[in-house]
């Protein structure tokens, strides 16, 4: 039961339908920070527009893509003005979050007077830039598509949906193994799912996932700290090596160890104290629960040794030692040894 | 009768040398280097010497004109006394060249033209080279007075051209006398403050006059007896860092705002109000200023923690003094009970290990270790151990 921690949780979800239910409309606004879903929504709308044009039997659809950052004044009017052959037009403005001022002005003008036979797709990748235009668009009730980041707890559902869209099945263990292996980046997760779909037949099991993505773990400082305070020296060292090999610098690894030990010491101190709750101010309930479980097998003396070892390691990774990697590994070993 | 030397506290030897130089022309020379630990009153001594050269030291010359001249020197407004003080890290070549020009001028009303450089340790080598000739052979009526924490801080070529005057750490009694005379504080309180500040005159003044500073120091020293276990240690470390951060941001906030307003004004953007956004190039400059200020704020936090650690060191120094039965005066006279309790509960080896832990933490802070983590490791090492 992992609580919703470390996932990119957003305060309020963006309004709009998900990408796979996006439908054509004179103006469609795609908002949200998840790039993969945004790209998919844009290409889905382009496909729908093509299909609609060919079903119509009218002239060929003309698709124009504009980068909002390079937009020059008047461009939108040029593109959308009716042509001699009355072709339907599909206009995509990408990177709307870094739009030029001219782009904002022209889109606002277009909103007041949209052209017939034109579908305009705006892709805004999050952020506050262009808020005025966005508010105007929302107020004008244009079609909205939301592409919020997928939280960790929804990633298994995302994988299952990928397979069912390709009319394939994946076992629940397979889903869990895949999310564990490549789950941090949605693009990577989708690519891995695509590869499994095209390279395998039948129901995908965790053995098959393991054959393709076995041995890959996502190592973060927090996972290293979890393994170290749990007394798993081998697991923690594998994670340390893995994290550093995949580009995590030693300093945040040590910071994660320090944070973990600090929380544990505070939770231990809150027991049997008059103002125990004051001590835990600023800690989330799941952190406290987690620290309570972590504290099993720890003595105060052990914690003291572990904290001092971590401080020494921090000094070492910041220049006191010639081998920061070794300093982190030694700190992990010392922390495990301090656990009785 | 007041004398210019009154404010030079607890330095009879140095004052004797300087007085003789004022009264006896054969003892006078053209370049002086005043050294002494922080808080010993280097710049005060330099100004007093300058005043004595300009208008006598108040012993024999008592005319109103002389009094007036001395007062102007102490305030830094006398035309023949030029004082250089900087809050930058180095004194640049351009500034030094200005000094060289000033040194060539004949004094206007006084017998001497005096140039006081308060931070001679910040003269880098390139600037020093521009200064060498002027210091070695100034015009007959020009005197240089340089101040630095120690002789080693001044570049050799400058050092060898000056006559040295060394200030010592003033005795706590003398500092207390100064506090009584200057601020009219009760003599006992003044002595406690002087001891607690370890004779640093500026710190002693702030401890004696500012109840908040006193309370802050007491709170730091409480750590030594309050921390009973690892949990306490981590909590105390958190508080210590929090207080240092709050103090730093309080003292910086006003200055930061003034600097930002000045920058906006010089960029001509100070009337952009009502949510009007600034142009991108102005924003970059503002961001750069804010980054610098953040760096300075961080530095202030580390300085505050370092001061707290020095206070803790003085506490364990007292503990050790009690443990080995030495009869020196305690630095922390107000915390005698705590000192004795800690001394009874531990042995000298432990005390030394603790002072070592504090020293390690100070080194680590200077080495950019996360302040909270460094302080935690220190407070953990201070907890009572069996």
UniProtKB/TrEMBL annotation, chain B:
Pfam families on file: DNA_pol3_delta2
Xref: InterPro entries: AAA+_ATPase, DNA_Rep/Repair_Clamp_Loader, P-loop_NTPase
GO BP, one annotated term: DNA-templated DNA replication
All residue ranges annotated as the AAA+ ATPase domain in the record: 28-170
PANTHER family: DNA POLYMERASE III SUBUNIT DELTA, REPLICATION FACTOR C / DNA POLYMERASE III GAMMA-TAU SUBUNIT
Family annotation (NCBIfam families): PRK07940.1
Designated name of the protein: DNA polymerase III delta prime subunit
Species for this entry: Serinibacter arcticus
Species lineage: Bacteria, Bacillati, Actinomycetota, Actinomycetes, Micrococcales
């Amino acid at each position: 039961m992992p609580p919703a921690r470390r996932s990119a949780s957003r305060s309020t979800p963006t309004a709009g339908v998900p990408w796979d239910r996006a439908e054509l409309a004179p103006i469609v606004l795609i908002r949200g920070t998840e790039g993969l879903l945004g790209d998919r929504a844009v290409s889905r709308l382009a496909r729908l527009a093509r299909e609609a044009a060919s079903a119509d039997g009218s002239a060929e659809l003309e698709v124009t893509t504009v980068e909002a950052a390079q937009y020059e004044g008047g461009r939108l009017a040029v593109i959308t003005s009716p042509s001699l052959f009355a072709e339907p037009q599909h206009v995509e403005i990408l990177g709307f979050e870094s739009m030029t001022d001219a782009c904002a002005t022209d889109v606002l003008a277009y909103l007041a007077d949209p052209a017939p036979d034109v579908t305009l797709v705006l892709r805004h990748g999050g952020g506050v830039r262009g808020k005025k235009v966005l508010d105007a668009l929302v107020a004008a009730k244009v079609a909205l598509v939301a592409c919020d980041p997928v939280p960790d707890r929804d990633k298994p559902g995302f994988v299952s949906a990928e397979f069912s869209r390709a009319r394939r099945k994946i076992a629940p263990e397979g889903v869990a193994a895949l999310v564990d292996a490549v789950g941090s980046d949605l693009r990577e997760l989708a690519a891995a799912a695509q590869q499994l779909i095209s390279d395998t037949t039948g129901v995908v099991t965790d053995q098959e996932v393991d054959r393709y993505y076995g041995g890959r773990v996502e190592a973060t400082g927090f996972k290293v700290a979890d393994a170290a305070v749990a007394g798993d020296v081998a697991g923690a060292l594998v994670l340390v090596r893995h994290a550093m090999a995949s580009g995590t610098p030693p300093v945040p690894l040590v910071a994660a160890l320090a944070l973990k030990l600090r929380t544990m010491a505070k939770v231990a101190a809150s027991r049997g104290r008059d103002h125990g709750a004051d001590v835990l101010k600023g800690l989330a309930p799941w952190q406290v629960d987690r620290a309570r479980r972590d504290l099993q097998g720890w003595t105060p003396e052990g914690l003291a040794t572990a904290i001092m070892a971590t401080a020494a390691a921090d000094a070492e990774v910041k220049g006191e030692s010639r081998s920061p990697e070794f300093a982190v590994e030694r700190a992990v070993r010392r922390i495990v040894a301090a656990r009785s | 009768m007041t004398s210019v030397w009154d404010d030079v506290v607890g330095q009879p030897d140095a004052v004797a040398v300087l007085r003789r130089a004022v009264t006896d022309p054969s003892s006078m020379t053209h370049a002086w280097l005043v050294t002494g630990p922080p808080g010993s009153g280097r710049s005060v001594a330099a100004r007093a010497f300058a005043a004595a050269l300009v208008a006598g030291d108040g012993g024999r010359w008592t005319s109103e004109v002389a009094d007036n001249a001395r007062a102007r020197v102490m305030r830094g407004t006398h035309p023949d006394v030029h004082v250089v003080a900087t809050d930058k890290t180095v004194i640049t070549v351009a500034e030094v060249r200005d000094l060289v020009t000033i040194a060539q001028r004949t004094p206007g009303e006084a017998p001497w033209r005096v140039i006081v450089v308060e931070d001679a340790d910040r003269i880098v080598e390139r600037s020093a080279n521009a200064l060498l000739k002027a210091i070695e052979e100034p015009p007959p009526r020009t005197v240089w007075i340089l101040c630095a924490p120690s002789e080693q801080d001044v570049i050799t070529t400058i050092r060898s051209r000056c006559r040295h005057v060394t200030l010592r750490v003033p005795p706590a009694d003398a500092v207390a006398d100064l506090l009584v005379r200057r601020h009219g504080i009760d003599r006992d309180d003044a002595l406690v403050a002087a001891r607690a500040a370890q004779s640093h005159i500026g710190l002693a003044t702030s401890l004696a006059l500012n109840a908040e500073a006193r309370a802050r120091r007491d709170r730091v020293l409480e750590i030594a007896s309050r921390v009973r276990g690892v949990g306490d240690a981590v909590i105390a470390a958190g508080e210590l860092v929090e207080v240092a951060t709050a103090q730093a941001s309080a003292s910086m906030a006003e200055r930061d705002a003034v600097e930002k307003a000045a920058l906006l004004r010089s960029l001509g953007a100070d009337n952009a109000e009502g949510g009007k956004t600034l142009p991108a190039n102005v924003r970059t400059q503002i961001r750069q200023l804010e980054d610098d200020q953040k760096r300075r704020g961080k530095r202030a936090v580390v300085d505050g923690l370092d001061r707290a650690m020095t206070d803790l060191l003085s506490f364990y120094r007292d503990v050790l003094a009690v443990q080995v039965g030495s009869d020196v005066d305690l630095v922390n006279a107000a915390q005698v009970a705590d000192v004795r309790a800690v001394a009874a509960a531990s042995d000298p080896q432990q005390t030394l290990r603790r002072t070592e832990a504090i020293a390690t933490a100070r080194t680590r802070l200077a080495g950019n270790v996360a302040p909270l983590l460094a302080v935690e490791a220190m407070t953990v090492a201070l907890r009572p151990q069996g």
